[in-house]
Amino acid sequence: MSILRRPKIGVVGGGQIGGIIALLAAQDGIDVGLVDIKGGLAQAKGLDIEQAGYAGSFGSAVEGGDSYENLEGSDIVIITSGLPRKPGQNRDDLLLINAEIIKAVTEQVMKHTKNPVLIYVANPVDAITRLGKEISGLDSNKVIGMAPFLDSSRFAKLLSEKLEVSMKDIVAPVLGGHGDTMVPLVRYTTVGGLPLLEWVRQGKISQDEVDDIVQETRVGGGSLVKLFGKDAPKGHGGSAFNAPAMCAYEMAKAIIKDENRVISVCTSFDGLYGGGDGHGVNIKRGTYVGLPVILGAGGVKRVIDYPLIHEEQTELEASVGAVLNEQNGLYEIESLGLKM
């Protein structure tokens, strides 16, 4: 007689993001292996979440500690390890430090799991996810980054406020790198099923207001860092944590439950993208960049190719160029030992 087991998510990093992911998963009946260099912290958070099960009517196991053995049996591992941004820093400033952290963590994850899907959260996420693919040796559909989903969430929130419409009724795809070059796809954004540009035509929002929202979406992470400032949670550093945790968990849930959700994620692509006029943007093999995908069992099932007009192609081409330069920088860090 076979015994059915609950699905399991591994989480590396027991800070703000990791702790929230563990709670969300446990509430959904998913077991969690939580690992942090501060073993007591991870163990305490796991126990705290398990004790919340009585009030929350769930009985998931949350095994916390400093041993990567806690990850054994995980279908998905969400890697939140890495330093957050501080005021005055941009995402690129974190590349050298976080790359070395991610290399060491990924090697340990692969020693204690079998063919998992890996979801990366740390910045600069496009380069970090590319590094995860190189170190893990997994198929590219099993190695993805969270941030483009977060960018879509920020885009939708700003539109929701302006139009006084629930975010549940907004579709807001974002392409490109996680940073100032990202490309919110205004032409494919819908609110209540209507194209956003139709809301502009009807006078419910001006094109200038849409342009301002696009720009605010691009700098949304930096705005939060400034707001946190010296009031950031102790030991956190002062960057977003609730929204990134929710986005990372929803991605994991889509995979575990085979939901076939359409979500913008950081993924690998090879070839022409967005060939609306017969041309498209040439994305070099192995480049990781934000694109809309179908996310289900096994990870990325398919990249959705939005036909792009010339202006959109130009913006995406610039964004791809920026993230490719950043990702190529990984091969210049001798301690990573990567070969082109």
State the total count of DSSP E strands.
Answer: 14
> What is the typical, i.e. mean, pLDDT?
92
Helix content: 40-55%
Largest sheet: 6 strands, parallel
Number of helices: 10
Instruction: Bin the strand percentage.
Output: 15-25%
Poorly predicted regions are none
- List the helices and strands in order: EHEHEEHEHEHEEEEEHHHHEEEH
Oligomer description: single chain
Radius of gyration from the CA trace?
Answer: 20 Å
Helix vs. strand class: alpha/beta
Q: What's the shape?
A: globular
What is the strand arrangement across the widest sheet?
Answer: 3-2-1-4-5-6
**Gap from first CA to last CA:** 49 Å
What is the strand and helix layout of this fold?
Layout: E1 8-12, H1 16-27, E2 31-35, H2 39-56, E3 62-65, E4 76-79, H3 95-112, E5 117-120, H4 125-136, E6 143-145, H5 147-163, E7 170-171, E8 174-175, E9 183-184, E10 190-191, E11 194-195, H6 196-201, H7 207-218, H8 220-228, H9 242-256, E12 261-273, E13 281-296, E14 299-303, H10 310-328
Parallel strand pairs: 1-2, 1-4, 2-3, 4-5, 5-6
Antiparallel strand pairs: 7-10, 8-9, 10-11, 12-13, 13-14
How would you sum up this structure, described in words?
The chain is of the alpha/beta class and 340 residues long. The protein has helices at 16-27, 39-56, 95-112, 125-136, 147-163, 196-201, 207-218, 220-228, 242-256, 310-328, and strands spanning 8-12, 31-35, 62-65, 76-79, 117-120, 143-145, 170-171, 174-175, 183-184, 190-191, 194-195, 261-273, 281-296, 299-303. It has a six-stranded parallel beta sheet, with helices on both faces. Strands 7-10-11 form a three-stranded antiparallel beta sheet. A three-stranded antiparallel beta sheet has the order 12-13-14. A hairpin with a 2-residue loop joins strand 13 (281-296) and strand 14 (299-303). The model has no long low-confidence stretch (mean pLDDT 92).
